[in-house]
Design goal:
Pfam families: BPS1 (PF03087). The protein contains 10 helices and no strands. It is an all-alpha fold. It has one domain. Helix 7 packs across helix 8. The longest helix has 47 residues. The two termini are 42 Å apart. The N terminus is likely disordered.
């Protein structure tokens, strides 16, 4: 199955996994989940459905991690080879993953609510521009707020580059050595998927008062066919952005034309609502898995 564009994830490349013989079957299961995610990541398309697939894949990966941490072999190994620096990195990593997932989910929920409010206003509208302009401005402000939140999330991803950068000497315990390597791979693939998702959610430049000739000029310069193809390559968020900009254009006072723009925006907002719903469910599932993993780590490392 295809998923994430390699262009948007080049800063978070994940190495192929090659470890010694595995003493416990849970490590094999975890490696299989990692390889599935890498296969999806190497696909050619980046759309809402594949991002949801990736997030659910991450949730399954962290379920595997939780099982691995709670296995008798892992707990015994960690109890025998306590290392303060690595223990702190494990806890710090789990906290950063939780924070990143939570903030992304909050941004999606906020944007979903704003889009629904605009959709509701369009349904009540009788076609007059002034009656919906304030709702459109509210939507645009919400997109700008999302841009700031995404920028903060991307900044936190950069801080995760150095997690597990310096492993303690774990070679004396083969199982713990394998576990450490798998956890690092999991951290890298998590950063990679969230990096792609955040770029997908990042708002395009959206002006409250676009030039009434902006789209016309674009069509003239690029040609109708090229402009159409470009629109087809847009994701659901970008299509709503274009539809919202079109609602603010004042190039025509024709009520039929205005009604057509409103109807087009409503259709795109309905699609966007479904996208946000899918993201919300997938992020909720991942968040729960991350919580279980952190609780397991806290229980193990506190002994």
């Amino acid at each position: 199955m295809v998923a994430f564009s390699s262009k948007s994830t080049k800063h978070y490349s994940v190495r192929s996994i090659s470890f010694p013989a595995r003493p416990h079957p849970s490590t094999i299961r975890m490696e299989e989940e990692l390889n599935k995610l890498k296969a999806w990541q190497g696909g050619s398309s980046s759309n809402a459905e594949t991002f949801c697939t990736g997030l659910l894949g991450l949730a399954e990966l962290y379920t595997c991690i939780d099982d691995l941490l709670n296995s008798r072999f892992t707990q015994q190994a960690l109890a025998q080879h306590h290392h303060e620096k690595w223990d702190n990195e494990l806890l710090d990593c789990s906290l950063k993953h939780l924070d990143l997932c939570g903030k992304t989910r909050d941004a999606v929920l906020s944007m979903k609510q704003s889009a629904r409010e605009l959709q509701s206003a369009l349904r009540r509208s009788k076609g007059g521009e002034l009656s919906i302009e304030s709702n459109i401005s509210t939507y645009i402000r919400a997109r700008k707020t999302m841009k700031k939140e995404i920028a903060n999330c991307l900044a936190s991803l950069k801080q995760m580059d150095y997690i597990f950068s310096d492993f303690p000497k774990l070679e004396q315990n083969l199982h713990l050595f394998v576990v450490a390597g798998l956890l690092r791979e999991a951290s890298l693939i998590t950063a990679s998927i969230f990096h792609s998702l955040l770029l997908f959610l990042a708002p395009s430049p959206l002006k409250a008062k676009p030039s009434k000739w902006s789209l016309v000029t674009k069509l003239v310069k690029k040609g109708l066919t090229t402009a159409y193809e470009e629109h087809q390559n847009m994701n659901e968020l970008e299509r709503v952005d274009v539809a919202v900009s079109n609602l603010l254009l004042q190039s025509s006072r024709d009520e039929d034309c205005e009604e057509e723009r409103i109807q087009s925006a409503q259709v795109k907002l309905e699609c966007l609502d479904a996208v946000f719903g899918g993201f919300e469910d997938a992020l909720d599932c991942l968040f729960k898995s991350l919580i279980h993993t952190r609780v397991s780590l806290l229980n193990i490392l506190s002994h």
